[in-house]
Design goal:
The complex is a heterodimer. Chain A has helices at 2-16, 20-25, 28-50, 57-63, 65-77. By secondary structure, chain A is mainly α. Helices cover 72% and strands 1% of the residues of chain B. In chain B, helix 1 (11-23) packs parallel to helix 10 (218-244) and helix 6 (82-115) packs antiparallel against helix 12 (272-301). Chain B is globular, with a radius of gyration of 20 Å. Classes of the chains: A mainly alpha, B mainly alpha.
Chain lengths: 79, 367
């Protein structure tokens, strides 16, 4: 767990390092938009740190379009 | 990052970005599943997919001629209105997040399966995303210039492997033709149209960055680069089939597996390490182009003045997605080989419909 937290912090620092001044300069609207991204980022961070297999973006694809894709591929394989 | 028109690329740089996007990760990831699905007829599947890709490209270029200064999302707005276009853009963004994460996962998987099996995947995922984010931060002009060298090194590695593998190639594995009927070929077309040929519609976002004085040549270059990508993939598939024979469908990262067989005299062997790094440079380029598109589309969607503001948070989310999405490799395989092609086919729907609507409107004199 500690390893994952460290990876997350280091990656975050490396990514945000060049943007700190931009965030400081940004207006209220921009900050709200940034805050809205904090929700999925936080959800995924907890999921990563806790090593849990919760609902994810690919599940959305698999459960919707994935069913049709699966049927198509089954048909291709049935020769 | 400036708006299209302020930050520009030449048509040559567009070609470099385009070919790196088309063959970047596909040259290493496409041949093995293609051979698994279509067997020794995989070459036919790739040819058909390349032609289908060219048809899609003609629609992309038609819309670019109709709306030369609008990016993809802007002309979706014009054609469908802001609400429907908004829904399409949200789905497009989700697709880009998936795509970017899959490419990053592929890079991590390649390293942990072949060259650095003891190193944790997060090392590769994090480093690739950080490098891609900094490249996007530098802008599309810098990417266009930088990718020339990376693309050249990758092409040299691929061509060297192909040439050195010719002496160990045998023609017999290419026969018999259509041994299992036509369905495996259709399966190969389904997969290779989704990855990489259908993905070319993402370049609708990049095209308005081309300098106005050289735009008339953009179409020719893109057709030529699509043909080159198809030819390169075709050659890699044929060389994989003819060198690995019946094992071709079982060996992951085909070109890397072929390079391990190469031995010239007693002095030139073990070239797979160099080849592996060159191939990964290709995946990195594709990841960078996708991150650029993702960041640009989101900035336009939120109508931000500063286009770099969202870049770190987008990159962080993509990193977390790449680390949390697939507990097992078979799930990634299902997502990429089965689901992803249909996502791409669906993703091209709004563009194809927009081209049709624009065409009809223009015919009726309303466009």
């Amino acid at each position: 767990m500690a390893e994952r937290v460290l990876v997350l912090i280091l990656t975050g620092i490396a990514l945000f390092a060049v943007n700190v001044s931009r965030i400081r300069r940004s207006g209220r609207r921009e900050r709200w938009i940034l805050m809205s991204f904090a929700v999925p980022a936080l959800y995924l961070s907890v999921m990563y740190v806790a090593d849990e297999d919760w609902l994810n973006l690919h599940d959305l694809a698999n459960e919707s379009i994935g069913r049709i894709a699966h049927l198509m591929v089954k048909w291709f394989e049935h020769s | 990052m400036k708006a299209p028109g302020k930050q520009t690329i030449s048509v040559g740089q567009l070609a470099i970005l385009y070919v790196s996007f088309m063959v970047g990760s596909s040259v290493i990831n496409v041949p093995n599943p293609m051979i698994q699905f279509a067997g020794n007829m995989a070459w036919l599947s790739i040819i058909v997919s390349a032609f289908m890709g060219m048809l899609l490209l003609s629609l992309v270029l038609y819309l670019f001629r109709c709306y030369p200064d609008d990016v993809y999302t802007a002309y979706l707005n014009r054609v469908y209105g802001s609400w429907i276009a908004g829904v399409f853009v949200v789905l497009f963004v989700l697709m880009l997040f998936l795509m970017f994460s899959y490419i990053i996962l592929d890079i991590g998987n390649f390293f942990t399966n072949t060259m650095m099996v003891e190193t944790p995947a997060y090392v590769f995922n994090a480093l690739t995303i950080i490098a891609a984010a900094y490249a996007v931060h530098a802008g599309i002009e810098v990417m266009g210039r930088m990718f020339f060298l990376l693309m050249a090194s990758m092409m040299v590695a691929v061509v060297v492997v192909i040439i050195l593998a010719i002496p160990i190639a045998r023609a017999e594995p290419l026969l018999p033709l259509f041994a299992e009927g036509f369905k495996p070929v259709l399966h190969g077309i389904y997969f290779s149209y989704g990855f990489p040929f259908g993905e070319l519609f993402l370049f609708s976002v990049i095209l308005p960055f081309v300098r106005k004085d050289s735009r008339q040549h953009a179409g020719k270059w893109m057709y030529a680069m699509t043909a080159l990508s198809g030819l390169l993939l075709l050659t890699v598939i044929v060389i994989t089939l003819t060198t690995l024979g019946p094992l071709a469908g079982d060996r992951k990262f085909s070109l890397y597996a072929v390079s391990r067989l190469i031995e010239v005299g007693q002095f030139l062997l073990g070239i797979e390490a160099v080849v592996g790094i060159a191939l990964i440079a290709g995946s990195f380029m594709k990841a960078t182009v996708v991150l650029f598109i993702l960041n640009y589309v989101m900035s336009r969607f939120f109508n931000l003045d500063d286009d770099k503001l969202l870049l770190p948070v987008i990159s962080l989310i993509a990193f977390l997605l790449s680390m949390t999405m697939f507990p097992t490799e078979s799930e990634l395989s299902f997502a990429v080989h089965v689901v992803w092609p249909l996502i791409v086919v669906t993703g091209t729907g709004p563009l194809i419909l927009a081209a049709l609507i624009t065409f009809v409107k223009r015919r009726l004199g309303k466009g």
